[in-house]
Design brief:
This protein is an alpha+beta fold. The chain has a single domain, classed as Sufe protein. Chain: A (Alpha-Beta Complex). The protein has 4 helices and 4 strands, in the order H-E-E-E-H-H-H-E. It has a 4-stranded mixed sheet with strand order 3-2-1-4, with helices on one face. A hairpin with a 5-residue loop joins strand 2 and strand 3. Helix 1 crosses helix 2, helix 2 packs parallel to helix 4 and helix 3 packs antiparallel against helix 4. The longest helix has 20 residues. The chain is globular. The structure holds zinc ion (ZN). Zinc ion (ZN) binds next to helix 2.
């Protein structure tokens, strides 16, 4: 990747970490997932409301931690809001490939999420980038109520 693109990606990440989108409470959320990344000290509290077909009608988060984790959550919520369950699952798989697999093709549908591709060089950072995605995965699985997920086993 040339350095100009890398710089642009950095800017997007910084912008989202400073002014996170979809940040705040969602009073009528169906499910809340608290994600924890002890390796870095990141927290993401994700709240989701589903539509009649199980799609993500609304999604918001609060949290604290490094720029990568907060920017990843912000970018993710922008991308997933209004998406069907199938689309979310596909996006999750594509994003995981993007940040972990050199050989993975980057689907154009990922859009702005592509700024996270540099993370694959930094395994510790992958946990930061994946934290909100682990939370949304749990939210889909759970469907209702509250849950906690962690990037560390046990
Ligand atoms: Zn982090």
């Amino acid at each position: 990747m040339n350095s100009e693109i890398e710089e642009l990606y950095q800017e997007v990440i910084l912008d989202h970490s400073r002014r996170p989108r979809n940040f705040g409470e969602l009073p009528d959320a169906a499910v809340r997932v608290h994600g924890d990344n002890p390796a870095c000290g990141d927290e993401i509290h994700l709240a989701v409301r589903f539509d009649g077909d199980g799609g993500l009608e609304d999604i918001k988060f609060t949290g604290r931690g490094c720029a990568i984790s907060q920017a990843s959550a912000s970018l993710m919520t922008m991308k997933l809001k209004g998406k069907s369950r199938t689309e979310v699952t596909e996006m999750l798989r594509a994003f995981h490939g993007l940040v972990t697999d050199e050989t993975s093709e980057t689907p154009g549908t990922l859009g702005d999420l592509r700024v996270m591709r540099g993370m694959r060089k930094f395994p510790q950072r992958v946990k930061c980038a994946m934290l909100p995605w682990r939370a949304v995965e749990q939210a889909l699985e759970q469907g209702a109520g509250e849950a906690t997920v962690s990037t560390e086993p046990g």
